[in-house]
Amino acid sequence: MAVRQVGLDIGATHVRAAEVEFSGRTGGSGKATLVRYADVPLPLGAVSDGEIHELDTVTAQLKRLWVEGKFSTKDVIAGVGNPRVVVREIEVPSLPMDQLRTSLPFQVSELLPMATDDALLDIYPTGERETETGSQLRGMMVAANKASVSTHVKVIEDAGLHPQMIDLYALALCRAHAIEEWNGHTVAFVDIGARTTNVVVVSGGVPRFVRTLPGGGQDATDAVASAMQISAEDAEQLKREVGVGFQIAENLTAAADALTTTSRSLVESIRNTFVFYSGNHPGAGIEHVVLTGGGAYLPGLDQALTNASRLPVSFGDGLARCAVPSKLRQHLKEGAEAKISMAVGLAFGEVAA
Fold first, then answer.
1. Whether the predicted model's global pTM rises above the 0.70 cut
2. What CATH number is attached to the domain comprising 134?
């Protein structure tokens, strides 16, 4: 029996939704087909750093998204991910999941920069081992601010949609790219959005480390707009003409300098994240970097990250796990493979759980 799920990605510049049909076996091993996809823009400032600031605006655009996308259901799996979300690899006594979730506030309070009463806590199991004191469960602990999640849920419900699950963007990113090519390797998936960058390190198909960094593609656009005194729309086009590390005309030097500064800051933050991971996981260093997200396609950025990290870098394909009917593929915008990852990965949520 076929099952359809819709992943909803509320980003800084767009809201995106992907409807995926699953047939055959569950657990992410059956056949997945992208049957519908749509996106609509958001004005700058409506969503920033993963937080919704203009609730009415986002609600209105979600309603528009459902009209334009003609999705078959209003049930959605939505995502959260911002620098305030805490994700840690922990090891706790193995218990039934309901008991474990109940005990989490008492076991992880010292790891949190917020009071446990202000946090929504969950754990994503990644392994288990036997010790002298009993079975120990290893997993990724996720702590999100209750108020932030509540705002997301309110906006979604005000748009007439029904959130079935609130997932972590980093885990959705893993699911969208969980292809056989990366099995047995340690890979860093780096999704560069408009205002935030999600980094998740996967080893042997299991997520081991997650970090959300402030900064993304819109910061580069803003820097160019300021340096050249032009509109954001013109700056977006110009930054892709100028790129990072290329020879440019003298009259574009200010734009190139602005791009170099913002890109260097982001690349260094990503590189430092890799260094931190490697330092805490000796003998299991990162072997490859996969870039996704609209901000990843700034010309020259991939080479800058290769030079800084000394690691091979390639671009991911958010549609790698989905069949796409030819009629739908013709209507997908250029570069959709990079921007669709989160929505598709969210759609895999309950099926892959």
1. yes
2. 3.30.1490.300
